[in-house]
């Protein structure tokens, strides 16, 4: 008796390129990659956090401590491994007016409220809305991100000593060429160490990290905001809390989706939304300015340094705190040129160059290109990725609605007898396609009995039911009988529930 063929071995749950934390801890090579990636990210976080603190109008320590608490917390509770969350420019822009008018205490309460809102929204399933973000918006989001990363480095290249430019060039060369020789150590880290050593050895007078603002010399402590618990306080913070929550969720989910594509893996968007809320609550408890996913630093971590686990995210936060508190004097002498070189290469690597090739633009529908351009234009103009994504989705909806509306047609399909005419309506029936449905029938010329066959269509909204009521009314005003047939179950429910209740026949 022949034995049955053995069943194929089940696929591994985790691909080798996307290990778990436990697998990474057991692999010296992977662990080294995660540790060094965390260190590079921490170095890149410092000037960014200081800059965002200045934008928000708070002490640099507020941004630096927020970056520490956000990174460490999201490493534990987040849904996307290897993604970096910290103080961000988008949140800084939102809260700057609040800080200016009401001070740090109101900022902290706002961050706490935003975190709670994010947790609530995650429980309501807001992460599922990501399915409505088209690919063209995603491409525009990535390209706009690359432009913003590059433009954020321009101030560090203006009005500076001429030595900055060759230093940036050397840094870029190291990042480009070193991986061709070895990938044992991340090229950005080598560039930072090399340029820092050169600046110290030759006494080069160039801008440094220390010039961006004072670094803290103590650990973060719990912060109790002095704010009255009144409706007036709620009125003040509510708009800002909602804006911080929505901007943070949108940027974090878009970043998570981008990392999913880069790593060819999936992440829990609901958990990521919930995790962002928890991280903001923790950050608020320590007096931080709040934040969300940092796309530039995430690209450094995932795309440039090759990190794949939560270890790198956690260590980025830990290294950040150690660097600014214990090794602040060392970090302060790092030339800004080194970090500018890193960020320039991040922007170059992030931009989707394929999307702007002439051959691609010729093949792509004009609508897809328009959606991408709209997303990029609004994002770059407002410096807010959330605004760009929202506008891109709205433009995509308009194009989609217009395209689907033209797929609907009314066809004269049969004349069973001289007193009967059968129309077939085909396509999706909703507000855009049903608005001109009324004009597609020959009310005066049709015979006594008219059959409208909807078996090739689908009713999606009340506008269609109102249009069908209007058609029936026009025929009956001429003494003619109308019969609507072929409704599938969802369409039948719409029609039976709303027909005659919408005032379509006036």
Strand order of the largest sheet: 3-4-5-6
Q: Termini separation (Å)?
A: 80 Å
Compute the average pLDDT.
88
SS elements, strand count: 6
Rg computed from alpha carbons, rounded to a whole number of angstroms = 29 Å
As a percent range, the share of strand residues is 5-15%
Structural class: alpha/beta
Overall geometry: elongated
- Fraction in helix: 55-70%
Low-confidence stretches: 1-15
Number of helices: 20
Largest sheet, in brief, is: 4 strands, mixed
Secondary-structure element order, N to C:
HHHEHHHHHHHEHHHHHHHEEHEHEH
| Overall number of structural domains | 2
What does this structure look like?
It is a single chain. With 506 residues, the chain is α/β, with parallel strands linked by helices. The chain folds into 2 domains: 21-351, no CATH class; 409-498, STAS domain (Transcription Regulator spoIIAA), CATH 3.30.750.24. Helix content is 61%, strand content 7%. The chain is built from 20 helices and 6 strands. It has helices at 21-26, 28-56, 60-77, 89-102, 104-123, 135-153, 164-181, 187-201, 231-263, 269-285, 295-304, 310-326, 328-332, 336-350, 358-363, 366-382, 385-405, 431-434, 462-477, 489-498, and strands at 85-86, 292-293, 409-414, 420-429, 449-459, 481-485. The strands form 2 sheets. The protein has a 4-stranded mixed beta sheet. Strand 3 and strand 4 form a beta hairpin. Helix 6 packs parallel to helix 16. The radius of gyration is 29 Å and the shape is elongated. The termini are far apart. InterPro entries: Membrane-Transporter-like, SLC26A/SulP_dom, STAS_dom, STAS_dom_sf. Residues 418-506 form the STAS domain. Its main location: membrane. This is SulP family sulfate permease. Keywords: Membrane, Transmembrane, Transmembrane helix.
